[in-house]
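Weekly sync, protein design subgroup
Attendees: M.S., D.O., the rotation student, P.L. (late)

Item 1: inverse folding check
M.S. brought a backbone from last month's batch and wanted to see whether the design step gives back something sensible before we order anything. D.O. pointed out we never logged the input encoding, so this time it goes straight into the notes. C-alpha cells as presented (403 positions):
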C-alpha cells in the first residue's frame, strides 16, 4: 500500500496546474521523445496514437492535468486508473518499465519549464509520479495473477493460429483464433479486447487492440477488423492473415463489459466497426440471459459496410426479449426498408427516448468519437444517469470523450 502524499507535495503539484495548462502538451511530447529513444520502451506502445496528429499525447496531457487537479481527491480518478491498468496489462507493461517513464517525465518537465522547474517542484512531481505508479503496479500485478491462474488463462504472449477468415462486409473481416498449444482459452467478459503483437516486415513490432466479437467459450476467440485507410495493422491483417497463420496474443483485458447477470434492460448502441463488442454482448445475452430485455441499435454508413446483419437478425429472433434496429446513412434502390434496414439517417437521442426504455435501461455504446460524443450527450440530456451509460472507444485509454 502506497504511503500518503505529503501536504507539501500536494500543494506544489497543484501549484503547477497553470504551467501544465500552458505547456502540458509540450512536456508530454518531449517526454515521449525521450522515452522512444529506447527501442524496448518505444515498442511497448501503439505508435499510431503518437506523432503530431496522434491522440495519445493530448490524452496523456489531459490525464496529467486531471491528476494534478485531483491529487487531493484521488477517488475521482478510480475509473481512469482501472482503465489505464487494463490497457497496460494488454500491452504487457511491467514494473521495470516505470523508471524509464519517470526519468523521461521529470526530464521533460525540467527541459520545458526551465528555471521554473525548481528542485523542490521536480521532487514533488517525482513523489507524485511514484505514488500513482505504485497504485498501477499493484493493480496490474493483481490482474496478471488473475489472468494467469484462471482456467485457460495465461501471462505474456501466447501463440494463436488463425482458424477461419470470414469477410463480413466491404470493409470488415472476421478472424477466428485458436491456441496453438491446443489448450482452452480464458472466457472473456463480453466487451473486452485482445492485444496483438504483429511482426510486420519493415516495421518495429506493432501492438493493436481488437475487441472480441463472439460470446465467451472455451475454445476460440473471434475478432472482426475494419480495414482502415492507411491502417498498418488492419491492412496487413486483411491482406495476409490466412488459416494457419500464427499470431502473438495477450490475454483478454478491458473494464468495459456486460455484467454476468444484467439487472436492468440492456440497450446496445454501435456505429460502424463499434459493433464488435456489442455482438459479443448480444450473443451472450441470447445464450445465457433469457429474462433480459435487450435492444440492439446499430448505425452503418450503408448496406455494403454493414457487417453481421444476418447474424444479428438470427440472434434477436432466437430470444423472446430481443429486438434490433438498423440505421443507414445512405441507401440504394435495391435496399428495402424493414428488410435490409429500419431507418435512414443517424441514431439520435429523440428516437432513443421514444423507442427504448430510457428510464430504466443500461446503455452500452461503442463507435467513432463523433458517434459517442453525440449519443452520450443525448442520453445525459434525456436524464439517463452516468452510472447507466457505459462506453468503449478505440483510442488511448485516458481520452475523456464525454467530459
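Designed sequence read out in the meeting:
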Amino acid at each position: 500500500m502506497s504511503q500518503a502524499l505529503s501536504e507539501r507535495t500536494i500543494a506544489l503539484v497543484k501549484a503547477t496546474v497553470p504551467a501544465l495548462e500552458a505547456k502540458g502538451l509540450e512536456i508530454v511530447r518531449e517526454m515521449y521523445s525521450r522515452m522512444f529513444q529506447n527501442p524496448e520502451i518505444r515498442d511497448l506502445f501503439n505508435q499510431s496514437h503518437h506523432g503530431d496528429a496522434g491522440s495519445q499525447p493530448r490524452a496523456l496531457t489531459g490525464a496529467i492535468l486531471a491528476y494534478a487537479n485531483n491529487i487531493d481527491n484521488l477517488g475521482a480518478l478510480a475509473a481512469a486508473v482501472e482503465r489505464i491498468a487494463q490497457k497496460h496489462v494488454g500491452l504487457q507493461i511491467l514494473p521495470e518499465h516505470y523508471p524509464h517513464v519517470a526519468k523521461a517525465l521529470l526530464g521533460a518537465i525540467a527541459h520545458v519549464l526551465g528555471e521554473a522547474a525548481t528542485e523542490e517542484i521536480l521532487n514533488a512531481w517525482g513523489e507524485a509520479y511514484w505514488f500513482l505508479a505504485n497504485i498501477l503496479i499493484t493493480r496490474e500485478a493483481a490482474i496478471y495473477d488473475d489472468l494467469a491462474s484462471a482456467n485457460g488463462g495465461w501471462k505474456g504472449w501466447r501463440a494463436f493460429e488463425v482458424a477461419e477468415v470470414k469477410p463480413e462486409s466491404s470493409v470488415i473481416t472476421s478472424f477466428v483464433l485458436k491456441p496453438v498449444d491446443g489448450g482452452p482459452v480464458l472466457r472473456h467478459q463480453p466487451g473486452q479486447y485482445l492485444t496483438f503483437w504483429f511482426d510486420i516486415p519493415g516495421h518495429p513490432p506493432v501492438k493493436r487492440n481488437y475487441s472480441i466479437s463472439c460470446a465467451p467459450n472455451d475454445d476460440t476467440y473471434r475478432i472482426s477488423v475494419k480495414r482502415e485507410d492507411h491502417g498498418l495493422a488492419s491492412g496487413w491483417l486483411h491482406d495476409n492473415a490466412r488459416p494457419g497463420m500464427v499470431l502473438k496474443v495477450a490475454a483478454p483485458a478491458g473494464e468495459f463489459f456486460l455484467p454476468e447477470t444484467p439487472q436492468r434492460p440492456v440497450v446496445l448502441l454501435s456505429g460502424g466497426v463499434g459493433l464488435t463488442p456489442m455482438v459479443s454482448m448480444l450473443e451472450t445475452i441470447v445464450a445465457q440471459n433469457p429474462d433480459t430485455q435487450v435492444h440492439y441499435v446499430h448505425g452503418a454508413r450503408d448496406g455494403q459496410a454493414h457487417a453481421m446483419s444476418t447474424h444479428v437478425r438470427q440472434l434477436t429472433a432466437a430470444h423472446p426479449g430481443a429486438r434490433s434496429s438498423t440505421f443507414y446513412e445512405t441507401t440504394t434502390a435495391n435496399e428495402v426498408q424493414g428488410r435490409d434496414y429500419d431507418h435512414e439517417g443517424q441514431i439520435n437521442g429523440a428516437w432513443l427516448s421514444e423507442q427504448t426504455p430510457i428510464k430504466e435501461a443500461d446503455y452500452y455504446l461503442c463507435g467513432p468519437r463523433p458517434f459517442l460524443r453525440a449519443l452520450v450527450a443525448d442520453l445525459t440530456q434525456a436524464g439517463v444517469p452516468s452510472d447507466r451509460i457505459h462506453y468503449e472507444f478505440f483510442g488511448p485509454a485516458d481520452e475523456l470523450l464525454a467530459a
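Discussion: DSSP finds twelve helices and twelve strands in the chain. The chain has three domains: 7-149, 158-253, 266-392.
Action: P.L. to compare against the previous round before Friday.
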